[in-house]
Amino acid sequence: MSKITFRADDELIEGLEALDASKSAAMREALRAYLDAPARDAGGNEGDSLDTLVAERVDAIIDERLEAFARQEPQDVNVNITLDGDSVVSSDASTPERKTPSEEAVEASDAARKTCGQCGEKLDSDHVYCPNCGEKAARRAFCDCGDELRSDWAFCPGCGRRTPAADVLDRS
């Protein structure tokens, strides 16, 4: 049998001396009980057990949410479309339909366009440029000061700057 020596505080020594058995017999019994006991979670590293507990709880919550999401049945989608305007379509048989849209129809569709042609962003009627991508929203000309210019004006009425139309005057 091997000999083991260890240090103990005074209270533990007093408790050990109060026992009926010898000190070595009491220590052997305590050591056997400790080593033969099943693995104890409370006596282990508390940091690891706390991490394990948190990880298990998070996994359980994720599993619950995934199961709840997967159990949902696909829902029906209802779409209602209402059209305002004349409900009767009149067709004039004497006028043949055009195969290409007229220039007036193209200009009207450009004027009625409420989205950017490049990125599809919704545009207000007062937007000159798209707030999303910077694409010019209309074919109108504007001065650097922000005033709208007509194509035949040589100078901006707001700030007096020369316009590209004024370059026609320099041809002399």
What does this structure look like?
It is elongated and about 120 Å long. The protein has a domain of 33 residues. It is 34% helix and 2% strand. By secondary structure, the chain is mostly helical. A two-stranded antiparallel sheet has the order 1-2.
Quick overview of this protein structure:
By secondary structure, the protein is mostly helical. It is built from four helices and two strands; from the N terminus they run ααααββ.
Furnish the topology, listing elements before pairings.
Elements: H1 10-17, H2 23-36, H3 46-71, H4 103-112, E1 141-142, E2 148-149
Antiparallel strand pairs: 1-2
- Oligomerization: single chain
- The portion of residues forming beta strands comes to under 5%
| Gross geometry | elongated
What class do helices, strands and sheet pairing give? mainly alpha
Characteristics of this structure?
single chain; 172 residues; mainly alpha; 4 helices; 2 strands
